[in-house]
Amino acid sequence: MGNAGGLDKTAVSMHSQSMRTGLVILFNLLAMASIAIADETLPELKAGDQTYTHVTIFKISATDIYFTSDKGMANAKLKDLTPELQKHFHFNSTNAVAIEQKQKAANVQYFQNVSHPSASAGQSSQDGSKVETGTGKKIWASSFLNQPPPPLMVEKWLTPPPDTHGKFVLIDFWATWCGPCRAAIPELNAIHRDFGDKLVVIGISDESEMDVRRLADPKLEYSVAIDTQARTKTAVGVTGIPHVLIIDPKGIVRWEGFPLLQGHELNEKVVADIISQYSN
After folding, report:
1. Which of 87, 88, 252, 265 has its CA 20 to 30 A from that of 280?
2. Are residues 274 and 136 in the same domain?
3. What are the average pLDDT values for consecutive 10-residue runs of the chain, which has 280 residues?
4. The pTM is what?
């Protein structure tokens, strides 16, 4: 699910046929452009203002290079490498620009689709969304607002397990390949920093540990877990990501949905209001 081999999961997670087509084309292009590198090593790699040492490269694409180094797993843009390394890795700036433009177009199409007018209450619309009872908000999952959610099932924590006792819990269902998921990470980082004493942020993906650990930008500052069986995701009925639940200390869902949905964005003010209203 974290690479071109996960096209089926990618398509299932999108919300319209046109968007699925665009993303499938994109990932096919990425797959065609990807080249597996068999443990090529470099003593040093400079990418922009970053310098990595003890580098072992395991994959490159038309736009990125993926490697382990003294800083752990990371990826960098080929356009940020030195001219010598760009030549060594057969970097083609024209191809890279074309692929990045297709990715941007696919992300724009995603936002346009999730911002369409909602369907009638209790019904699914053409993009697979449902309507949250009482709010009219579109969600791509079953609704658990003002109800207990299914238990969080974790296969492995990639960070130390958080202490959730007596705290609000924000669960983000996400994936590394998902542009809107990555776009939501900075806001989730800010929520973690500003409300960490009262709220725990957890990002959970059904990708492999390696896929999640490869993501270096943006960096997740909150708790991260994987469940490759997608048990909680399935129980919540998630069909589109990112999908967020905010659960109060009594175990009741107080917010749910796509955190970037126009008119219903999840931000620090929303979180502050929820904490203020449901702390007691």
Report:
1. 265
2. yes
3. 37 40 40 50 87 84 80 77 89 82 57 41 58 84 94 94 95 94 95 96 96 90 95 94 96 95 93 94
4. 0.59
Instruction: Report how many helices (DSSP H) and strands (DSSP E) the chain contains, helices first.
Output: 8, 12
In this prediction, residue 94 carries a pLDDT of 87
Give me the number of domains the chain comprises.
2
> What strands lie across the sheet with 253-257, from one edge to the other?
156-157, 223-226, 199-205, 168-173, 243-247, 253-257
Q: Are residues 102 and 73 in the same domain?
A: yes
Query: How is residue 119 written in tokens?
Result: 């369907």
Same domain, 183 and 245: yes
| pLDDT value, residue 182 | 93
**Do residue 154 and residue 258 come from a single domain?**
yes
CB 84 within 8 A of CB 97: no
Phi, psi of 254 (to 5 degrees): -115, -10
d(CA 102, CA 98): 6
Amino acid identity, residue 98?
Answer: A
Tell me the residue range of the domain where 82 lies: 4-112
